[in-house]
Amino acid sequence: MKPYSFFKNIAVIIGILSLFVGGTSFVMADQPHDPYADRPLKEAAQEDKAQNLMTSLRCLVCQGQSIADSNAAMAADMRAIVRHDIEQGQSPEAIRQWFIDRYGDWVSYKPTWSKRNWPLWLFPLFVLLGGLLLLRRLFRKEKP
């Protein structure tokens, strides 16, 4: 067997395999999300709780959208979890904490004070104090 024909056969096999793998990705990309994700809860009070919670949770796929606003399949799955857990009687804070435990603080639009993020909470205060000290120094009258 010639070396050229060996590499040609390998290239043909890789090409055929990539068609199979690539073809399935198009099929998987168009899968519908959970049909129950967008079905409102029967009780209006529960649906209000679910909506408030969904607007405070960030979509993990989209940039800067809440799961209430996102059309991503991941957001639909998260909405279904929120509605199911609210319907089962869990508190919104317990559900939020479950998402934070699973995906990290980034998932919540309402972050909490913790040992890991305290510099983020105090940084604006330090910038403000530094700016005030700078202004005081710039506009202080010189003593003769």
The main sheet comes to: none
CATH topology of the largest domain: Helicase, Ruva Protein, domain 3
Residues in helix, %? 55-70%
The secondary-structure element order is HHHHH
Tell me what you see in this structure:
The chain has 144 residues and is an all-alpha fold. The protein has helices spanning 3-29, 44-55, 73-87, 92-103, 118-139. It folds into two domains: 1-31; 35-139, Helicase, Ruva Protein, domain 3 (Orthogonal Bundle). It has five helices and no strands. It is flat and about 95 Å long. The relative contact order is 0.08.
Which properties best describe this structure?
0% strand; 144 residues; 5 helices; single chain; Cytochrome c-type biogenesis protein; Helicase, Ruva Protein, domain 3; mainly alpha
Q: Helices and strands in order, then pairings?
A:
Elements: H1 3-29, H2 44-55, H3 73-87, H4 92-103, H5 118-139
Helix pairs in contact: 2-3
Condensed summary:
This protein is 61% helix and 0% strand.
